[in-house]
Every structure is written in C-alpha cells, then in structure tokens.
Design goal:
globular; eight-stranded mixed sheet; alpha+beta; single chain; 428 residues; 22 strands; FAD/NAD(P)-binding domain
C-alpha cells in the first residue's frame, strides 16, 4: 500500500494553495494530490477570474479582514496577478447609493478560460518539479479515519494527514465524506438566480470595470461578469437518485479584439437561507433544477426581457430577426417562461434588482436581453470545524468552495493555505 505524509483530494485552487504552501515550508514531506477528473479541476478552468479584495470570496463566518488580508498577501505573492484598471467608478457608485445599493471596488485580474488552462499547466509543472505526485483520473471513494487510509477506485492509500478540497461540484461528495466521518454539518444556504446576457453596449460599465460587484437589497448581487468573447454554458448535475438537471454559468476567453463576439453575461443571484425549519439547500436546489428541466425538455430555460415584461413566454421565433438582434451564446437552452419555474418571491427580488441596475447602467432592460434560468450555486456546506485551520477530525482537514470556506479562486487558494498551516502543525 502506498503511503504519504499528505494526501490532497482535489486539484483546484484550494488543493493547489495547500500543496504549494507545504512544499515551500516543509520540503522533506511526501505529497499526493488526486482528482477524479482526468484533468486538473476547479475555478481556474472556467474563465479564471480572480478577486484580491476582502470580503469577495471570504465567507464572514470563517474570515475577518485581518486574517483574510494576511492570506491574500500570500496568494498575491505566489500568483503575481496583473490587476485590471478601472475608471468612472465614483459615478456608478453614486448612482447605486441613491437607490440604496452599493458597488464594491475590487482588485481583479482576468486570464480567461484559455489563460486559465495555461496557468494550470504551469502550476502542474511546478508541482511535478517539486516532487508532488499528481494522480488525475483517480476518485476517492471512502476514508477510514482509524486506519488513516482512503480507498480510491484504483487502490488503498495511507496518509498521515488528509485534505479534502472539493469545488462547488463536489458539494454532494463532501456530504458523503462528512456522514462517514460523523462530522456534523448544515447546508442551509444557497444562491438562486439567473444569468443575464446582452450586448456590451447595453451594459457599458464592463468597459470601465471588468466584473462589477453590485449589491442590492434583499441579498441580491451580481456575480461572475464576462465580456468580450463571452459565452453562457450549462453545467450538469445529478441527484442521489440519478436524475439529471442543468445549471447555467458563464465564461470568457482572454481579451482579443479579433474574436470579440460583442456580448456580456453575468449572474444575478439571491441568497436563500433556511432557518426555521432548517432545510437542505442541496435538496431545494435539486427540486428547482428538476422543475426547470421538466419545463425545458431536459434543458435550462431562456427568456427575452421583452417577452417577460409583456407577461408572455419566449418562443423559438423570439430569438430571430428584427429587434432581437443577437443569437444566444448558449444554444442548448429552451425558450420558455421562467416565471413558471422560479419561486415568485425570489423572482420579485431578482426583477427589482434588474430595474435598479438598469437605472445605474441604463440599457440592461433592453427587450433583446436574455435571462437564463436556473443559475444555482451549491457551495455552502457548513461543517463543524474543530479549529481555525478547518480541521474536522484528527489530521483531517477541509478547504475550498464545496466546504464552505471560500467563494472563488483566491478565497479557495487562501483557505488551502490556511488548512495547510494546521496540517503542518499536525505533522510535527
């Protein structure tokens, strides 16, 4: 049986952050990193947009500004980002404040999907050169905390300390791990909303601020803006029963005027928190996703703003000719009426935010604008952590979006470093 000082499950930014921190500070340890996918996964594969300002990406129940800034400094030192310029921010902020909204000014960088893949390749090379064993296409099945082993689909592996670092799509997998370890947790929070797609001239703020972070009343926010060569995509999810549903997402390639499709997309999300009675956010999300799939013939839904405002569903003809002068970048969506699928209270908050946004950045409510549904974020597992380093059992640590310790690439990387500090202490 193979044995390692450190086993890291997940090759996204949380796993990467932990691995690089450990090899920098403890060069004599053996590290294995596995991932069930045949390639390195995580947020760096999809658009690779990074934020370097607290509180973006840092859940407040685990991070204060002093702690986050200290780890962000380490992340910045390692990744050496080129921060994007911004302009005219004060004008947009003043408009937002008059409506009781806010626009956060965030230090950002954007590599694009192609740039992200190049970064991953570079990071993997550095891991190999540092002696880290990287095993892609190997899936962890179970963990035995007493024997200090994990079972994969290929072998049994011994560890001294273990980091489980799943991303958002590892949400359900992590719940299985927590149940097997008897780690208490709740998953009562999720984000539900739409992805908006329109022409750049209808959302010109992206020329001044690549990924503007607007916060509206009733816990609605903009998230993950993409422009230039920008595309809406769908992500596949399966319930524990094997039922399939899709959430939408967005990405863009690195800036290249010759390949600019002239579109912009972003998410508009409402945070939903269940308290009394306490309910599972994952199960709620699955019901919403399955309802949308039922209405869309197995596909996510899309509707033009012009049709929505008139109270009628969009049809195939809606997306051709005349005023509706751009084709959806996501062809695998079904023209429909999202008001039949989204809970009415959530839809009211989303629509109110869109009207406020149209006042701040006039044009977003152009009739041709497309609303895709659902966009759902499942990354809010809340395990009962033993300490500040996200330890859940002796020598077993969690990190990343799936574990609720972060929301995005830089937050995940920082949480991986933070977990590695606990692992380092444990190895002593």
């Amino acid at each position: 049986m193979d044995r390692y000082d450190v086993v890291i499950v997940g090759s996204g930014p949380a796993g990467m952050g932990a691995a690089f921190s450990l090899i920098e500070r403890k060069k004599d340890i053996s590290i294995l990193m596995i991932d069930k996918a045949p390639y390195s996964t995580g947020g760096m594969r999809n658009d690779c947009k990074m934020n370097f300002t607290f509180p973006i990406g840092f859940p407040l129940e685990y991070w204060d500004q002093e702690t986050a800034d200290a780890y962000l400094e380490e992340v910045t030192r390692f990744l050496q980002p080129t921060i994007l310029p911004k302009s005219n921010i004060a004008t947009y902020q003043a408009r937002a404040e008059r409506l009781g909204c806010s626009l956060l000014e965030i230090r950002q960088t954007h590599l694009g999907t192609d740039g992200g893949l190049a970064l991953i390749k570079e990071l993997q090379k550095k891991l190999n050169e540092a002696g880290v064993t990287l095993s892609l296409g190997e899936e962890m099945l179970t963990v035995d905390k007493n024997e200090r082993t994990i079972l994969t689909d290929k072998r049994r592996i011994g560890f001294k300390t273990l980091l489980v670092a799943p991303g958002r799509q590892g949400f359900h997998f992590l719940q299985d791990v927590m149940q097997s370890l008897e780690v208490p947790f709740v998953d009562n929070i999720l984000d539900v909303g739409i992805r908006v797609e329109t022409r750049i001239e209808h959302y010109p703020i992206v020329k001044d601020y690549y990924d503007p972070k607007f916060y509206f009343k009733e816990k609605v926010r903009t998230f993950c803006t993409n422009s230039g060569n920008a595309h809406v995509v769908r992500e596949k999810y399966a319930t524990s029963r094997g039922d399939i549903w899709y959430s939408v997402n967005g990405h863009a390639y690195a800036a290249d005027e010759s390949k600019n499709n002239g579109l912009v997309n972003f998410a508009l999300l409402k945070t939903v928190r269940f308290t009394e009675p306490l309910a599972s956010g994952q199960e709620f999300a699955e019901h919403l996703g399955l309802m949308a799939a039922l209405m869309g013939g197995g596909k996510p839904l899309m509707q033009r703003v012009g049709d929505f405002r008139l109270g009628r569903r969009s049809k195939s003809a809606t997306f051709n000719g005349d005023l509706y002068d751009f084709k959806p970048s996501l062809q695998g969506a079904s023209p429909s009426d999202i008001s039949l699928a989204m809970p009415s209270k959530i839809l009211r908050y989303i629509w109110s935010a869109m009207k406020n946004l149209d006042t701040i950045v006039p044009g977003i409510l152009h009739p041709s604008t497309i609303m895709y549904y659902p966009e759902i974020k499942l990354y809010a597992n809340k395990p009962a952590y033993r300490d500040e380093h996200f330890q859940v059992e002796e020598g077993i640590f969690f990190a990343g979006d799936g574990a609720g310790t972060s929301r995005g690439i830089t937050g995940a990387w920082a949480s991986g470093i933070r977990a590695s500090r606990g692992m380092e202490e444990y190895l002593k």
